[in-house]
Design goal:
alpha/beta, 9 strands, two-stranded antiparallel sheet, about 240 residues, 6 helices
Length: about 240
């Protein structure tokens, strides 16, 4: 393992690498953002990851998701990441939750949460639970409908420059109703969102417990550039916070 992470150690040192190796990060959503975040965390040497995603790879994922290939269409994302991340670090501890996120997640032992959920109700619930459990969290808000990764930035949710983008404004509104206006770190964008055609569909998800969750899903445009960079931004922020940089 020393050789795998030797270049990391050359930058942040042995003690920081030990902190990273002893950390447990939860990643919710393994799409374009969460997938790149999970991989960067594994390549940083994070010792334990909990990965949460109910979905299988589809052909529409291939343009931007790191485990999405023609050969992996129809396979569960959690299982694909298990293979991939163990190939990066054979000693990594992985906990796979192949399910839709609901409110009964156990945050015991989690040092940091990466929120890459793209459904509003689940996203809001997760952020509220992180605050209630005093778990540090970074949330992706603004990777869809954009093309320019140079417009991404990290801030507290209270300091987002443009709160009028529909997805961001809805999240802020729902959190404000629960009395939350700050204390959540976000990766967001100054770029004005754009999509050629507004498409929505009703999606029904059956959880592992048998519950059916129905929601109206807005299909965003999504390029190969922004989601991946947002995921890297998230992982970088997590690692820097863990080692106190």
């Amino acid at each position: 393992m020393d050789e795998i992470f030797a270049r990391n150690v050359l930058y942040w040192g042995d003690e920081a690498q030990k902190i990273i190796a002893s950390s447990h990060i939860a990643v919710f959503g393994l799409g374009g953002v969460g997938g790149f975040c999970a991989e960067a965390l594994a390549r940083s040497g994070v010792g334990e990851l909990t990965l949460v995603d109910f979905d299988k790879v589809s052909k529409s994922n291939i343009n931007r998701q790191i485990i999405a290939l023609n050969s992996t269409v129809g396979m569960y994302k959690t299982e694909l990441f298990e293979i991939r991340l163990r190939d990066i670090n054979p000693d990594i501890k992985l906990h796979l939750i192949n399910d839709f996120y609901l409110e009964d997640f156990d945050f015991s032992g989690i040092n940091y949460t990466a929120d890459a959920i793209d459904t509003m109700r689940s996203k809001v619930n997760l952020l509220v639970k992180c605050l209630e459990n005093n778990v540090r969290v970074i949330s992706s808000m603004g990777a869809g409908n954009r093309i320019n990764p140079e417009k991404l930035y990290i801030s507290d949710i209270s300091e987002i420059h443009d709160k009028k983008a529909p997805f961001v404004s809805n999240i802020i509104y729902q959190l404000k109703k629960k009395g939350i206006t700050s204390g959540i770190t976000v990766v967001t964008s100054d770029e004005k969102p754009f999509v050629q055609e507004k498409i929505s569909e009703i999606e029904n998800i059956r959880t592992q417990s048998g519950e059916v969750v129905q929601f109206n899903k807005i299909i965003p445009s999504s390029t190969p550039f922004v989601a991946s960079c947002a995921g890297i931004f998230m992982a970088s922020k997590i690692i820097n916070d863990l080692i106190g940089r």
